[in-house]
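Q: My labmate handed me this sequence with no annotations at all. I'd like to see what the chain might look like in three dimensions before we decide whether it's worth expressing. Could you predict it?
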Amino acid sequence: MKKIILISAIFVLAMNVSAQVPFSLTEGECAIVYALPKTEICIEVQTEKVTQTPGMFYRYSERYLGTTNVITSEKTVYRLKNLEVKTRAIPDPKRTFTFKPITDKNSFSSRLSVNSQGLLCGVNVPNQPEAKPIENYTFPAVEKFVTPTLLPLGEEYMMAGSEAKLAEGAAKQIYHIRESRLGLMTADVDKLPADGASFSLMLEGLNKKESELTELFIGKTTTEIQSQQIFLTPDSAMTNQVLFRVSALRGLVPADDLGGSPYYINIKPTVTRVVAADSKAKQEVTALYTVFPAATQVTIGDGINTYFSGQFFIPQFGKIVPVSENVFKQKNLKIRVDQQTGRLLEIE
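A: Here is what I predict for the chain of 348 residues:
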């Protein structure tokens, strides 16, 4: 198929107006093969992974810091954070046609334009800039927010070999940092920073050190944002079909994994009735096919909350619209077709 499209593209500049037939090509035959588009939906699912890790001194948190609100065991929880839906056009193998040259003195030389995928762009017009492809990836793209490593304690406490003694040393460092910060903020120090920027830098450093040491007692929370893609090419309407599931323990899982909570997709195309201007008119020979895409509502939710709702023009739900061969008898003919939806945009 790719070979045929490549060979056909070479002859684009030399093609004359042709008769339109469904895709049928024999070896050695000169013709252009083009396809009408179909929409592929890309759903990017972002999940938030929260990992809680207890601090090594959590048993002493109440004694030295006066708090019982601490992490005491390892725990990992996933939840859905965000949904993004994008679309891209791919060739529809069921709507692929052959544009064959014919000899007709009343037809003017025309150039049929297709893009690199073989999607129809128009006649006697330059190719439209192709949309940036959606990047496919298998492994999650992870954005991490991790608390820095903890500061070491002084020699006196590190040499003690007792967890209680180490906890005491860490608590004293926390108290010392708090006293230093209070001295800065009340100007109760021998020498103040030279300017506001230096003051902010020192204050930020003290806050960071206190946070790192406090995590020895109350624990640490790490957050990761994971993004994964799901591709769907619908051929019919969908009602409450399970698209994916999210497990609190394993994150995004397939739709058939009952260990996660389901998220549903609904795809509802709008049926548009197209009426010919004169139904009694003589049927004309078709030279080119375009498509009238159907406005389609896409929603994704968990049955209670809706996380995405949007409308797209999807060509595979629409009707094929023929362009008469008589149109090609016009001088300086230009036909523009939307390569994303296959819709006829303009005849000039």
